[in-house]
Write a structure and sequence with these properties.
50% helix, 5 strands, Rossmann fold, 10 helices, Arc Repressor Mutant, subunit A, 224 residues, 5-stranded parallel β-sheet
């Protein structure tokens, strides 16, 4: 029998049905949470301890319920999946966290795994793939798709971009000229040009447009 609890649940893992895997789901979209609950219920081997609608609640629920697995959305209000994972992993290094997202950029995947995630899974993955991922992380394995693993193996470190370069990259994505960027960033036009040249070099891009395209594809524009 499954234990389905609301976001404000006070249930504890000790209330789980015998021989089931305890789960907490965190996603800010109610329909997605409901769909995952339905799928997990149909499987018969999971006990859902609680649901969270943002990252802050995910951290709080994990601390209180300590499930076997946390299914965590990447993009959530207040505290995103990377921050939530970092905070949970700092307190519980053995936490098994599966981050689920629609983003395929290698920088996003890299940062999730560096934060302590056990797996990174695309939201359009088949349910069987989710089940296999859960089974793997329960055995202590790290899981990413072969395609993502290949990207990670050949990635140019987006983390090599400085905070200022990331800021200027976002301005470039809006089509801003150097003078506009300089005014917004509070630096000189010459300094802007210096940073742009560094960005092009680090991303192996020939033009500003190509740099923005590569950064968008890899998920760099959404990371701060």
């Amino acid at each position: 029998m499954h234990t389905i609890t609301p976001t404000t649940s006070t249930a504890h893992a000790s209330h789980a049905a015998p021989d089931t895997t305890t789960i907490v789901i965190a996603d800010d979209h109610p329909l997605i949470r409901a769909g995952m609950v339905s799928l997990l219920q149909s499987e018969g081997s999971f006990t859902l301890l609680g649901q969270a609608c943002d990252g802050e609640q995910a951290v709080e629920l994990y601390q209180r319920l300590q499930p076997d697995v946390l299914l965590l959305d990447l993009s959530m209000p207040h505290c995103d999946g990377i921050e939530a994972t970092t905070r949970i992993h700092a307190l519980y290094p053995q936490a098994r966290i599966i981050i689920m997202s629609a983003h395929e950029g290698d920088e996003v995947v890299y940062r999730c795994m560096q934060a302590g995630a056990s797996a990174y899974l695309l939201k359009n993955a088949p349910f069987d793939e989710l089940l296999a991922t859960i089974a793997s992380v329960l055995k202590g394995r790290k899981v990413v798709t072969p395609q993502m693993a290949a990207k990670l193996a050949t990635r140019v470190h987006g983390s090599d971009l400085s905070i200022r370069e990331r800021e200027i990259l976002v301005h470039l994505a809006t089509g801003a000229c150097n003078k506009t960027i300089a005014r917004a960033a509070g630096i000189g036009v010459g300094t802007v040009k210096f940073h742009i040249n560094n960005i092009l070099s680090k991303l192996n891009a020939a033009t500003r447009t190509e740099a923005v395209m590569l950064a968008s594809r890899r998920g760099l524009l959404g990371l701060h």
